[in-house]
Every structure is written in structure tokens, then in C-alpha cells.
Amino acid sequence: MAAGPRVLVTGFEPFPGAPVNPTEWLVKSLTEEPPVDHLEHVEAFRAAVLPVDYAVVGPRLSELGRDFAPDVAIHFGLADEASGFRLERLARNRFAADRPDNSGALRDAGQVCAGPDTLDSGLPLQAIHDRLAEMNLPVEWSDDAGGYLCNTVFMLSRAKACESFAPAISGFVHVPLTGDKPAHTLTPDDLRAGALAILDLTCREWRRLHSI
């Protein structure tokens, strides 16, 4: 039997206007308590925080590709207007020119990388939507991941535009700020549980495609 997938989860550090980023917490949680018992037939797992820096994020993905070579990459990011897990269907090959990154840099409007205008997510989104709904976790659809670093990473990952970073399956999920309900739609426990469900279903999809 072939080896299972090498699985990467990413989140982001805080950024201007968001001094707390729940995806940074998620990465820390998955690093401290890796989901090895939750995921079957996985060869290796890693979670990493990505920089909110246009000049650095691509090289960081390349570094992860050289060091870890993920087969599956699930990227999480913060959208404070989201009402739950926001499943991003399309990566758009464009920058926004109006939001500085953590270094203060702005990107001119234009393409993120060579390639088509849009690329579909590689995640099994309908299965993920149904599972999260069954878990009574809020979930919604989106066809626009924005023009900031979240969409940049989504496009770079789907286009395999970073040297050595070429996951067979990748996609992006936005989440809201977390905290105690009812002030927030997700608690930290909800965030971790939903992320584990997304991981499980995506690994199942990888195994289906590879007949494992």
C-alpha cells in the first residue's frame, strides 16, 4: 500500500486591524496536539504560521515545500465579517492595492502570479459543508477570498507558483474571530473541531484519488 499524504495546515500571524488572529492559535493548537489519532493513513503532519508580508510569504511557502513537501495543504485565514467557516471556492489572480501588509508595503493591482484569472479550490467543499452543518457549526460559501494575503496564498498554492511547493490538493477556509458565545459564532474548541473535520475529509479525498 502506498504511503498516505503529507498534510500541511497554515494560518496567519496578526495583521493591521487584527491584533489577534484565531488561525495563529489554531496552528499552535495543532502543533502542540497533532491530530495523529484523528487522521488515518497520514504519513506526516505539520502546521505553520505564515507571515502577513507580500515579499516573504511566497519564499516561506517554498521553504515549506523544500522542508516538508506537502501533498495536502489547507490554508486558514481570518475574515472578521464571516459568520462561521467560510468555504472559499475560487482563488482569484489579483492583488488589492489598498491594504498594507505588516511591513507597510502595498501591492500594485495586478496578477498574483502567472496563470489563469481564477482557480477552483481543491478541497471536497460540499462534503466539508455537510459535515460542518451536521456538527452544528456555522458554515457559509464564498466565491471571493478578497485581495489581501489570504487570497494571495490561496492563488499561489493552487497555481503551484512557489518553487518546491506543489500540493496535489489545496484550498482556503476563512474563519471569524473566536471567543465565548453568544458574542462570537465560534469558540476555540469549535474552531479546532471544525478544522479537524476539514482535515479528515480532505485526507479521505486524497486517499480516494490515490485508491488508498
Helical proportion, percent range: 25-40%
Main β-sheet, spatial strand arrangement? 2-1-3-8-4-7
Main sheet record = 6 strands, mixed
Fourth CATH level, the homologous superfamily: Peptidase C15, pyroglutamyl peptidase I-like
The H-and-E topology, N to C, reads as: EHEHEEEEHEHEH
Strand share of the residues? 15-25%
CATH class: Alpha Beta
Question: Helix/strand-derived class?
Answer: alpha/beta
The unreliable regions are none
Q: In angstroms, what is the radius of gyration?
A: 16 Å
Which CATH-level-2 architecture? 3-Layer(aba) Sandwich
Task: List the total number of helices.
Answer: 5
Instruction: State the separation between the terminal residues, measured CA to CA.
Output: 7 Å
Indicate the CATH topology: Aminopeptidase
GO biological process, one term: proteolysis
Pfam family, one: Peptidase_C15
Keywords: Cytoplasm, Hydrolase, Protease, Thiol protease
Protein name: Pyrrolidone-carboxylate peptidase
Describe the structure.
- This protein is of the alpha/beta class.
- The protein has one domain (6-209): Peptidase C15, pyroglutamyl peptidase I-like (Aminopeptidase, 3-Layer(aba) Sandwich), CATH 3.40.630.
- It contains 5 helices and 8 strands; from the N terminus they run E-H-E-H-E-E-E-E-H-E-H-E-H.
- Strands 2-1-3-8-4-7 form a 6-stranded mixed sheet, with helices on both faces. Strands 5-6 form a two-stranded antiparallel ribbon.
- Strand 1, helix 1 and strand 2 (44-50) form a beta-alpha-beta unit.
- Helix 1 (22-32) packs across helix 5 (188-209).
- The longest helix has 22 residues, at 188-209.
- The model has no long low-confidence stretch (mean pLDDT 94).
